[in-house]
Amino acid sequence: MLNAWFCREVLPLERALTNFIQRNWRVASDVKDLRQDIYERALAGARTELPSHTRRYLFTVARNHLINGAKRAQVVSIELVADMSALELEEHDFEAERHLSARDELRRAQVGLDQLPPRCREVVWLRKVEGLTTRETAERLGIGLDTVEKQITQGMRALVDFMLGGNGKIRRPVTGRDRSRSELR
Length: 185
Prior knowledge:
10 helices; elongated
């Protein structure tokens, strides 16, 4: 799972990471080694839990690694210290991209939500967007608590499946009655 995350989300950022290191490190021959060190630190940090915002996480690891490397250097030039203060501003460079990415994710979530059956969509909307409790949702829709719980479970599974690249279809469990019907055919 960690390797899949790394290949899927971190490696596509290699060019941006390399550019970031080149802009913020004076010794060009160190760039590849620094990038590898950053990858190692990012993997080590993600072993316990995968970060929810990979780009932000990776560039925070990179910034901290570059700052620590500069502090460890025996001779720290005034220019390098000035450059390190500029690193704090680098995060703002990604602000527009973060907004675009968030908007894309929101659109994708809306498409996934629209694919849910109407009742299921309504339950997910009331519980997750409007923040109603299970009881409040049941009362508003005139359905039982068990129905709300089943609908939210099925709807969220389908939505997560869609967000992760699946078809987002609700998969209902096969019951004994359903199994015996299919065996008769």
